Amino acid sequence: MTGLPPARSLDKLLRPNSIAIIGASDEPSRIGGRPLAYLLAAGFRGPIYPVNSKRSTVQGLKAYPTIAAVPGAVDFAVIAVTAEQAVEAARDCAARGVGAACIFSAGFAEVGPAGVALQDRIAAIARDSGMRILGPNCLGLFNTEIGLYPTFSTTLDRGLPKPGRISIVTQSGAFGSHLFFTAIGRGLGMRYWITTGNEVDVDVAECLHWVAEDPGTDVIMAYTEGVKHGPRFIAALEAARARRKPVIFMKVGRSELGAAAISSHTATLAGADAIYDAVLRRHGAYRARTAEEMVDIAYAAGRGIYPASDRLGLITISGGVGALMADDAAERGLQVPPLPEAAQRELKALVPFASPRNPIDLTAQPFNDIKLVARNLEIALREGGYDSLIAFFSSVAGSPAIAEPMRQAIRELQSIRPCSKTPRARSLPWPPSSPAAARSDRRRCNRRCRSEGRARSHRP
User: Fold this and answer.
1) Which tens digits make up the pLDDT trace of 128-144?
2) Nearest alpha carbon to residue 313 among 213, 209, 418
3) What is the mean pLDDT of residues 219-229?
4) Is residue 391 scored above 80 in pLDDT?
């Protein structure tokens, strides 16, 4: 793609072999102490060099008065000092040959002209030296694979996240912390978490491209207040799509008030919201509105199984919830076609009180016999021609007498699959093919099945 700046590696930032912490504190609860405490707790395998001119040891490690006094090679430096001191620390790191730095310090472009001048000096250091700089005004990052936790997020005080295959890239540190904490609460494992802050050098688009190409990442959540380089951002989205990695994206600043809040937060220009909508839609990213929605979609996408078309079956024990689901499906352009007449009659024979069209309202009556619930689900799966099925059972399915039999029934139903001639969900690119193409594939499969004496219901 034309217009892209030359690629510059993020290896020293995201996969360093050694770390220095400038402004390291002996007190683990301080900004300069947390990253060291987290690195030690996680068992980071490389050398860690605390830099503190007033102490000979920090948290049990030998300390050094300056970065120049550190004896070994330093891939990555954490800078946890004031804004004025951070400029000098960045210059010292560049002179020392440090590969990358993360600047926690606030007081740069987000505070006005004086801060802009300081940030411009940081940018010049990154540009002239080639050292990659994350921030300033950022919360840091983590890489669970190697025990890398250069961050001062207090969220980690409650425990380090379990390793997993979800990566998060976010401009806002506090929102990023809320996002990964919410995901952890849902039992999701984390891979990378990267906060970019004021983006003097490394930005969301570049980190998004990194995790898109990372073989250990399957699902990506991302947040930004504004994209600085459009072609780089588009290239990152396309890299994720080419590798079938869903991107769940949040772009804030939809309103004038939100755009003003952005400017005072990270000094970012929000940009026209309709443009972001169009770009995200065109390049296969899903735009979420809340952290909870992002986590819900990441949870659903974590298994790597995606629908082959937009045909959706809805099963519920509540007519009201069925209507809500149908409204949501329509707003998102999904099809909710009715069950074939023969299948509707079959459901009616099983549950006379049911409304079997689609949404399929079973009522709560079938829960007197779990096998009856399973049979209703099986009919919808086999006969409906749906590529996705959503079932709502309220709290009924959580009853101790019902939960385990229900789980077992659902596990058995997972073996039901479409006809082998229908394009398989696992083999399709992300995002799925167009609805028109999927419908055409289904019609061709139906014709073949009929010619071979197979039922139209796509039995395996």
Assistant:
1) 999 999 999 999 999 99
2) 418
3) 93
4) yes
Domains (range + CATH), the chain:
12-137 (3.40.50.720), 161-303 (3.40.50.261), 305-460 (3.40.50)
Distance separating alpha carbons of residues 357 and 372, to the nearest angstrom: 18
Rounded CA gap, 435 and 423, in Å?
Answer: 13
Give the pTM: 0.82
The residue assigned the tokens 């006005």 is 112
Instruction: Answer whether residue 444 shows pLDDT above 70.
Output: no
Share of the chain above pLDDT 70, in %: 85
The radius of gyration computed from the CA coordinates of the chain, to the nearest angstrom, equals 26
Q: Is the pLDDT of residue 270 over 80?
A: no
Angle at 295 between CA 163 and CA 204, to 5 degrees: 75
Interval 327-339 mean pLDDT: 93
How many Å is the maximal CA-CA distance in the chain? 84
For residues 249 and 433, the model is more confident at: 249
CA dist 176 and 169 (Å) reads: 8
Closest residue by Cα to residue 392 from 316, 313, 300: 316
Q: Which residues neighbour 194 within 8 Å (Cβ) at sequence distance 6 or greater?
A: 14, 134, 141, 167, 168, 169, 170, 207, 211
> Are the C-beta atoms of residues 131 and 125 closer than 8 Å to each other?
yes
Q: What is the mean pLDDT of residues 340-356?
A: 91
- The rounded Cα 226 to chain-centroid distance in angstroms is 17
- Alpha-carbon distance of 419 to 454, in angstroms, equals 9
In tens, the pLDDT along 5-57 reads 566 799 999 999 999 999 999 999 999 999 999 999 999 999 999 999 999 99
Q: What is the pLDDT of residue 254?
A: 54
